[in-house]
Amino acid sequence: MGAYIIRRLLLMIPTIFGIMAVSFLITQFAPGGPVEQALANLSGQNVALAERVTGGGQETLSQAGPHDQAGTYRGRQGLSPELVERIEKQFGFDKPPLERFLSMIWNYVRFDFGQSYYRDISVIDLIIEKMPVSISLGLWMTLIAYGVSIPLGIAKARRDGSRFDVWTSTVIIVGYAVPGFLVAIALIVLFAGGSFWSIFPLRGLHSPGAASFPFWRWVLDYIWHLVLPITAMGLGAFATATLLTKNSFLDEISKQYVVTARAKGLTERRVLYGHVFRNAMMLIIASFPGAFIGAFFGGSLLIETIFSLDGLGFLGFEAISTRDYPVVFATLYIFSILGLLIGLISDLAYMWVDPRLDFESRQT
């Protein structure tokens, strides 16, 4: 087991390096990088940013000379070469791409993510600032979805073909078919002061002044703010996990060892939870890492936007839109590590569920 864990940890190094290399290469061909955006803003589209980039100095636009008219991109037209060089140096684009990439990797190994291009804050502080929202949405949605879906899936497997199985399947399939953002909008209209009732809050994770609340009231306020976002996010997850659980149990129930256990006189509960459960849960455990990472980062983007929750999903989208590369690469790096580590934890959970698995015999 120890050798397997070490192999997996060592394999993470080239995997993360490859992810970062491909992503860095793609950004080199993406139009409208940070330098181009800064130069466009300096040309008059954003005076405030222009003053920030130039340090509040008295930089003025120069007449576009022949060199500017034949420039490599239009944002340079009308700006002095000295100012262009200063902006390129500020964003680190005065160095060759390979040197910039190797420097970024060396800094990331030390978890030094630098400063955001457009925010006066370090990237790591920015991520930490947004983390509570994403943790709240991803963790609670995944735990609640699996906490409900596993018992429901077992019940559906035991009553396969019954009325209970049919109507619950109808409900969860309809819930899966409806996009989460439509559910979110409907919940706002119905329960957040849209057109009917104003029961649940709409913004943030806490009410104004929540820091001064007693602990019990602070917890209730926190839960109250999460009811609508978690409901909107959870419908699709309920369907996937429930049907996966049901099908896994149905597959195991039909096997010979279950028939033998019943022939020995074991109770149905003992057969189900003492024999079937362990084998049927293998697929459920395998699906957990992807569900968690998806809910933690990508899956919460629209929900964060609709409910005005400033989390990592919205941060990543905003960073890509504005070409804030330090934030883009830092979030990619962190979530790549998290995804690989959770995959390893999933394999270890396999062994806990079924000790017959021998990881030491695996070559990769």
Automatic annotation (TrEMBL):
An example Gene Ontology biological process: transmembrane transport
Domain of life: Bacteria
Membrane topology: Multi-pass membrane protein
A cellular-component GO term for this protein: plasma membrane
Subcellular location: Cell membrane
The keyword Transmembrane appears for this protein: yes
One Pfam assignment: BPD_transp_1
TM region positions: 9-30, 135-154, 166-199, 222-245, 280-307, 327-353
Domain ABC transmembrane type-1: 131-346
Assigned keywords, A-Z: Cell membrane, Membrane, Transmembrane, Transmembrane helix, Transport
Family: Belongs to the binding-protein-dependent transport system permease family.
Protein name, UniProt field: Microcin C transport system permease protein
Organism, as annotated: Devosia crocina
